[in-house]
Amino acid sequence: MLKTVDRIIETVENDLDHGGCCLTDGHFENGPNLHGENYFFAQKYFQNSDNCELMADLMIARLRSEEMNLPESTTLVGFRNYSALLLQTIIRKIPNFNYAVIEQGEESFVWQLRPELKRNLVIVLPITCTCSTYWKLRRFIKEYLESPQNEERYKETTVSNSFVNVFLILEETLKGKSDHPISIGRLKEPGGDNRLSDSERDKLYRMYAPFNWSELSSNRLSFGATDTRFTAFPLIQLFAKMHLPEECPLCFPEMNESPTGALRAERPLFPTYDNYETPNLIFGFPNFSGAENTEDFYDLFAPNDESGEIHLCGNIGVNGSTYSNYIRGGAFYRKNRVRILEFLERELNERLTPADERIVFITAKTMHDSDCLDELAVRDIFAGRSVSILRFQPSHEFIDNFVSIHREILADEDAKVIYFEEVLSAGKTFKLVSNYIKHLRDQNRDLIGIHGFDLVVTLVDRTLSFT
Fold first, then answer.
1. How far does the chain reach from its first CA to its final CA, in angstroms?
2. DSSP letters of 2-63?
3. Strand intervals (E) in 328-407
4. How far is CA 129 from CA 39, 106, 271, in A?
5. What is the DSSP letter of 121?
6. pTM recorded for the entire structure
7. DSSP one-letter code for 176
8. What Cα–Cα distance (Å) separates residue 414 from each residue in 56, 347, 359, 408, 430?
């Protein structure tokens, strides 16, 4: 297990430009309460099937440990749709469990995937610095369970006081010190922990005490008093320089003097908003897109919509666009899941050769995507193959960012690159990404006759003959 952990850490901590997941020597706003000098782009690691196999083995060992002691009737609740591939990999090995996924909306959380919830719900966070997301998700889930339409149905369902965070980012002062438990409450006491200096203890206490941290060790993090104890079980701990906003030396040059006494350069602060997949402004200019019609969007995809209607008619507003009739790809997939997966597996089997060992799916991301690709990626057709699922969010993400982050994968001419969209109509995202892949792969050659994608897969084809 230790070798697996070391292997994962080595990949994640490697620089983004060299195949890793880390942006280094920057200045990032990790929520409103912490500033960091590194940014770990976790989604890049979670979107590959080989990586998810490694993490799944670690996760299963933790879920089956005596510390967690989970019953068979358990639903794993993931956060963000890129966690679905990991959860799907786990469920394939523990078939008594199932999983759900919650996505961050513009103003609140929404269910992206919502199966029949079992009696015990365990939240799984892909990556976190303070674990504050757990409390927000817990509140959202409890409100859903206790709503009038669900109160009777889920009266015996509870949210576990234990949860799992795959990656826990800690202040680098704690590196090598969490092998023995650290009491956060004692850090404010003089000599409370002789492994740390007075200034380090003071900084760590003010950084973590507001989030109700009580004790940290290498394999667990406890919150609150003993009688109301909540516990996080981090699989992997990462370390980075982090600062409180009011004393961040990258914000205030007078706190950032060099050994010679000269002021160091101030670094611009890059926000990492919940609804952005990459820190905005790092690679390009602001995205001056129109405001979305969130009211219509939530009327259409509200969590309490149990109708499962596939084809909607009328003046339908979705993501700032209006439709006279609209097809919900996720609802279509859920009603026809078995036949769709069998069809796709059969069709892909005819088009993939033994030489196609690396498969790359690129899809246009929305908050209500189905888990079609995640389920397809663990089917027998992809056994022995490496599958990556790259999600591009055109409304919030720059195409240049997307291509820069995934350059190594997209430039691999031996990889089979497949575009997937649940409902394909105008093909705007397909054309945009295809052009960039074409230029990336063939920068020094004649582009005439060169294609970007090798295959296109869709559940519902609404394209016109001239599209």
1. 51
2. HHHHHHHHHHHHSBGGGTSSEE-S--EE-SSS-EES-EE-HHHHHTBHHHHHHHHHHHHHHH
3. 358-364, 386-392
4. 11, 21, 15
5. E
6. 0.86
7. T
8. 27, 20, 9, 12, 20
Reading the block at residue 393, the tokens are 């969010």
Q: The tokens of 200 are what?
A: 């380090």
Taking the CB of residue 295, how many other CB atoms lie within 10 A of it? Answer: 9
Contact assessment for residue 259 and residue 375, using Cβ atoms and an 8 Å cutoff: no
- The residue count for the chain: 467
The DSSP bridge pattern shows strands 109-113 and 213-216 to be unpaired
Q: If you ran DSSP here, which 8-state letter would residue 227 be given? A: G
For tokens 């826990």, name the residue: 168
Whole-angstrom CA distances from 278 to 166, 183, 193, 239 are 19, 34, 37, 20
- 71-128 per-position pLDDT tens digit: 889 999 999 989 999 999 999 999 999 999 998 876 788 898 877 899 999 999 999 9
Kindly calculate the radius of gyration of the chain based on its CA atoms and give it in whole angstroms. 23
Give the position of tokens 């104890």.
229
- Alpha-carbon gap, residue 307 to 331, rounded angstroms: 9
* Weakest-pLDDT range from 69-83, 209-223, 286-300, 429-443: 286-300
Q: Which amino acid is present at 414?
A: D
Half-sphere exposure of 44 (CA within 13 A, CB side): 28
Contact 271, 265 (CB under 8 A): no
